[in-house]
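Minimal example, chain plus zinc ion.
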Amino acid sequence: MTKRVSGDQKSQDELVELFANANRVFVFTGAGVSKESGLPTFRDLDGEWTKYDPMTFATLDGFLQNPVMVWNMYRKRQKQVAAAQPNPAHIVIAGMESYYPEFLLATQNVDDLHERAGSRKMVKIHGDSQRVRCLDCGESRCASDFDLPDEFDNDTLPKCPECGSLCRPDIVWFGEYVPQEPMFAAVNAASRCDLMLIVGTSGEVSGGYGFAEYAMRRGAKIVEINPSEGALTHYTHYWIAEPAGAALPPIWRLVAATHPRETSD
Ligand SMILES: [Zn+2]
């Protein structure tokens, strides 16, 4: 039942009505949104992991075997993220949260571009590349709270200020469970929404199927904005086969112009 939407007027009108009549919105984003800000993706086949063996760079065992090498890769990544800027997709999604009475963004992205665009009603289900977490006591802190060098050696690896143990990047690696709290919040929002947006993710990992199933069962409309077909595309009512930074702003401008709302803040 997926309707592939092109730039024609009728489809755009339908989408504007759909967006404007929704009240409980759940947005699920992935690497494609970051990619539009110039950040190479971790999980895409053409992405970062082809240069780095995931067993070394994205597992706890790999980290424990060579924390200096693994930390140096993530330090490079932290700096790429810090230098990147939110794009129009991040900005439109941040603007949605004051338009809808109920709203949640769940992102698989570990960068902070959604937050820097202004998103607050959000959960991160794969952790946060700009944070570090103690291996021992589990305390998570902002990387900027530490005076981290550009390159680590054995003496300069981040240590927990509380217990002195080694800290790791605060992201979810392969073989690890996604954190419960953000996952529950996301499942709850997916189960309650009347409109679900899937943006820049193939949806294969981390409950993507589950979110779409919950939303479907509730009778929600599902819109995917993704240049290439993904695992969830056949669930969707509308598939906009474009980058979100190009597709979302014109639709959202029309929604705001034709159906203004008293915003909640
Ligand atoms: Zn600690």
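The two ends are 37 Å apart (CA to CA). The chain has ten helices and ten strands.
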